[in-house]
Amino acid sequence: MLFNSFEFLVFLPLVFLGYWFVFKPLKWQNLFILAVSYLFYGWWDWRFLILIAFTSLCSYFSGIYLERNEGNCKKQKWISAGNITINLLILCIFKYLNFFSENLAALFKAFGMQLDFVTLNILLPVGISFYTFQALSYTIDVYQHKIKATHDPIAFFAYISFFPQLVAGPIERATNLLPQFNRSRTFDYDKAVDGMRQMLWGFFKKMVVADNCALFANGIFENYQSMSGSALLMGAFFFTIQIYGDFSGYSDIAIGCARLFGINLMQNFNYPYFSRDIAEFWRRWHISLTTWFRDYIYIPLGGSRVGKWKGIRNTTIIFLVSGFWHGANWTFIAWGAYHALLFLPLLLLGKNRKYKNTVAEGRLLPSFTELIQMGTTFMLVVIGWILFRAESIAQAWGYMRGMCDRSLFTIPKIPGLGIGQVLAKEIALFVFIMFTVEWLNRSKAHALQIDSMKKTYRYIIYTIVFILIYGFDASNPKGFIYFQF
Q: Catalytic residue numbers?
């Protein structure tokens, strides 16, 4: 079920009313959340439910067995490793088996050997990478004594399948989300209202900004060979805006929706396109995944405290794994490697944690230096998104080579796409509105957190945003980019 669909528009109010007015006891609330979450997820394909139920079951029992074998380190290691292996094996079969098979076949063919490898024609379950990592965090946290094993299967299954963040995050930690299913929740009017504001902004970023930018981005990337350099640059720019509006929009909707049910999810985006270097960008982009890799891979490898060369190794591993997490394609690995190359100089110079504050803090406008830093970082990110969006390394190379043509300095023309100049101007206006609102509220958790503003002005803003959202046809809702991951 899509957030931006008519079904969800009916689904959410019914779930809200049932949650607070019918299923009031904690156990019944958790059971109700579990049931509606499975309905939400099974809306795509009921067979997906078998997989998420199996993942939940394995992780639930792994926690119990870890607790029962407290003091037996060897056995605990086997239990933990066993559950991690099962979960990663499922992920690899559904997401990476064909990639490995095809590349091994190509490798053997390069040496003159023709071998047939197994490939599967299977549908990738929506959000499998997200809930798999959420399940893994529980097992690891229990093993590391960061959290006690839960004996409540309903609460645990609800933790894995909580519908607002199930298919595209944030990737929650057991230490944050699971305890919230184990304690009573009371309705908080102010929290719910603020959650609705955040959802409203998320819908604006998705339906008004991202989906319209996609018209240009998709058309240009699909016809890149016939485009001028300036048109290709515009296509890369539109995809850069699209993926931010799409993914951060989903996160805003998810976090705001969870607050309607008294649940707090972690912040997943912190205005990343206002970053002054790549290190700051990665502290602000997809925060739940970045911190997951930091805590469960980077730090166990020794982080940056194991010497210069091992620090370089660990950082490179994290970026390559992060790229591969996004999909079974060399373009994602190249995207991860590209960002590693941008990050490593900052690490070597000890400047990777230089910018931890809000840009232009306490000022309306950035300084000239900050403006140059943000512009440079943004353009570096734009180049990276070309690798991310391309369907192959050859396409990415051809796209970037075409962008470096002398036609880069011409007025962009996009013939044959059926997209008018009027729409282009409208989209430019929407992008301008989005960045302006976010810039003015960049020190807040979300861009519509405008409690200090007069009530009349607030409602004018809400009305304008709602009208813009309503102005776009929701009868054919577009999926979210990160559903494929």
A: 326
